[in-house]
Write a structure and sequence with these properties.
The chain has 416 residues and is of the alpha/beta class. Helices cover 33% and strands 20% of the residues. β12 (283-288) and β13 form a beta hairpin. The radius of gyration is 22 Å and the shape is globular.
Length: 416
């Protein structure tokens, strides 16, 4: 793919957007930037680099002329597919892609792409570690934190790219072709952006659309919706089969992918034994006066919270809240009634969460996470567990779930 001199407009300067701009500029593309944020919201070092490279840019909104004259439009995952820039591009016949599509066109090695509603980060991390422990070259990137375009340069044909992919990223794929496509599960998520569960499911299934008979699809046999997927062109391998009843589904998925690569089970088991978890996912922060504090900030859905609560063995004081993703929290009512002794709610969604669970347990509303942590400290008794499992996005108060989790850990560390 020759990018030299090609007019390419990048919409959205999140982490992947900035990485894409630098990637395109290094290939002498005629890069343009269109950003909804104002100039004052752009870090000074980024803006200085833009000026130095003489990149055409607009801040504080988008203009159709900049979009329509592009060779193609590259949108960040945070840019909605029904946004004005995308509509202008489609009207003008300008192709719209995302950062993982761009990177994949320059990737020489096999791609293992992992999607699903829950467990993507854990499974992607474990697959990468299994590959490395088995002596294979592998890199880990995508929705997990490091943009694909930051890793693709210099990768050899025998380097496996383990890629966590979200529905937002799968919306914009065109030629993206994973050697192994892993579909973990499906449940309500991002319904503030997707019309309904069916639309969300259909977008997730795009992960298989460019596969061939030489590729592999790894699917969850225990998920009722995943089991309905048909027409997959690649070789299907199932995990969580009936004979594996009781097996950790994440581990089962990883073992199945390892089998595709012919990796001995001993290397897989060693990886599981050494695994200490993923930051912000059921991460033990501290024992304070007999109370265990757990950071599950990555839990942004009801199903993720279900997983967290199911693993708790102590009475739970549950901290929930943030920005609602149009999710039905009521599916958790029976589990919350059994596991949670007190719920503390905060953020934009606190009223909806309170109304959902107020007949089942005691609920305290707080203005923010800091107030919630200090109230939890006062309420908790020795042998209790304080669990931050928000069930919501973080964008009402934080940049992302990582910032929310780090804030929680800092607040807990300071308790005295």
């Amino acid at each position: 793919m020759n990018l030299k001199g090609k007019k390419i407009t990048v919409v959205g300067l999140g982490k992947s957007g900035w990485a894409a701009v630098r990637f395109l500029k290094a290939r002498e593309a005629d890069v343009r930037i269109s950003e909804q944020k104002s100039r004052d919201e752009i870090p000074e070092d980024f803006f200085s680099w833009i000026k130095q490279e003489k990149i055409v840019c607009e801040f504080g909104g988008h203009t159709s002329s900049l979009i329509r004259e592009s060779g193609f439009l590259l949108i960040s995952p945070g840019v909605r597919f029904d946004s004005e820039p995308v509509r202008w591009a489609e009207e003008a016949g300008v192709p719209v892609i995302g950062e993982i599509e761009l990177a994949a066109r320059f990737c020489r090695g096999p791609i293992v792409a992992v999607t699903g509603s829950n467990g993507k980060t854990t499974v992607s991390t474990l697959i990468h570690q299994v590959l490395v422990n088995a002596g294979k070259k592998a890199v880990l990137c995508g929705n997990i934190g490091t943009p694909f375009v930051e890793k693709v340069d210099g990768l050899s044909a025998d380097t496996v790219v383990v890629l966590e992919v979200s529905s937002f990223q799968l919306e914009t794929i065109r030629e993206f072709h994973p050697f192994v496509a892993v579909f973990l599960n499906i449940s309500e998520n991002h319904l503030d952006r997707h019309a309904d569960l069916n639309e969300y499911f259909e977008i997730k299934k795009r992960i298989f659309m460019n596969q061939t008979g030489d590729d592999f699809a790894v699917l969850n046999a225990a998920d009722p919706l995943v089991k309905t997927i048909d027409g997959i062109p690649s070789a299907v391998r199932w995990f969580c089969r009936p004979e594996e009843n009781g097996t950790n589904p994440n581990f089962s998925a990883v073992k199945t992918v390892a089998g595709v690569f012919g990796i001995d089970e001993s290397a897989v088991e060693k990886t599981f034994a050494d695994f200490r978890g993923v930051e912000h996912r059921l991460e033990k922060v501290r024992d304070f006066r007999g109370v265990e504090f757990i950071n599950d900030s990555k839990s942004t859905t009801a199903e993720a919270a279900r997983w967290a609560l199911a693993s708790m063995t102590k009475p739970v004081i549950m901290l929930c809240g943030g920005r609602d993703k149009n999710i039905d929290f009521s599916v958790l009512r029976p589990l919350v009634a059994r596991k949670v002794k007190q719920m503390i709610v905060f953020g934009e969604a606190r009223d909806k969460i309170r109304r959902t669970f107020q007949e089942d347990i005691g609920i305290r509303e707080c203005r923010n996470l800091e107030e919630a942590v200090y109230y939890a400290r006062a309420l908790a008794k020795p042998s209790d567990c304080v669990l931050l499992s928000p069930m919501c996005a973080s964008f009402d108060a934080f940049k992302n779930f990582e910032e929310r989790g780090l804030t929680f850990k800092q607040l807990v560390t300071k308790l005295s």
